[in-house]
Amino acid sequence: MFQAKEVMRTEVVTVTPDLPIYEAVRILVENNVTGLPVVNEDMTVAGILSEKDVLSLLYNSEERGGKVRDFMTQGVVSFDQEESLIDIAQCLIEHSFRRVIITSHGKLVGIISRKDIVAYILRLRRKEKKAIEVHG
Amino acid sequence: MFSIKDIMTTDVAFVKKDTPVYDVVAMLVEQNITGIPVVNEDMSLAGVITEKDILRLLCDKQEEYGCAEDYMSTQVFSFDLNEDVIAVCECLVNSHFRRVPIVSEGKMVGIISRRDIIKYIVEPL
Question: ipTM score here?
C-alpha cells in the first residue's frame, strides 16, 4: 500500500513562531503556497499558518504588527511518513484543512496537501490507461 | 473603498456538468487550481468541484468514473457583483471553502479566492 513518504513533498518552506506576520504573508505569496508549517528550532511542529489565518489583516489594521504565533493554528494533525496515503486522504476528506504535516520521530520531514494527492490520482490514472493500451 | 470588481478574477476556468471527472482532475492539476465552477448551458452556476471532492477517487475505487455532476458540491455560496467585498472576505474567514463565484444577472462572471484577497493585502491596487 502507498505510504506517505512516496507522495510527500520534502522541500517545505517553514517559518518560526516569532517571525513578523507580514513577512510570513509575503512568504506565502512569493512561494505560492496556501499554508506554512511553523516549526521550533529542533524541527518539531508548533503549528500551521494558513491563508485563512491571515485574511483578517485586510480589515483589521491593528493586527498588522503581530507575530506568526499570534495567528497560527495550533494542535495540527500530523502523520508519520510510514502511514497509509488512503488514511491521509480520508482525513483530508473529513476535515476542512488542506494539508497535513509528515513527521519522522516527531520532527517535520515533509508535507502532503490535497493538491499532492490529486496530482497522484492523475498519475495513477495515466499509468492505468497506458497499461491498458499496452496489454489490451 | 475597493469593490468586488477590483479583486475578482474574471478569466475563470469552468466545466460543464457532463465533463468527465478525470478531465476535471487534469484541469485542476495542470492549471494549478484548487476548485472549479460547474456551469449550466446558460452560464448559471450548477456547483463547484474541488480537490476535496476528487480525493474520493482514491478512497472509493469504482469500475466506472462519472462526470463533474457526480462529484460536485451543489450547496455553493455565491455573491452578486454589487455586494460589499468585506462580506466576501468575512465569508471566506468564517467558512472552510476558499473561493466564491461572483454572479451578475444570474450568470457567473468571476471568482474571488482567499488568494485574491491575500494578494491585495500585500499589494493594494
Answer: 0.80
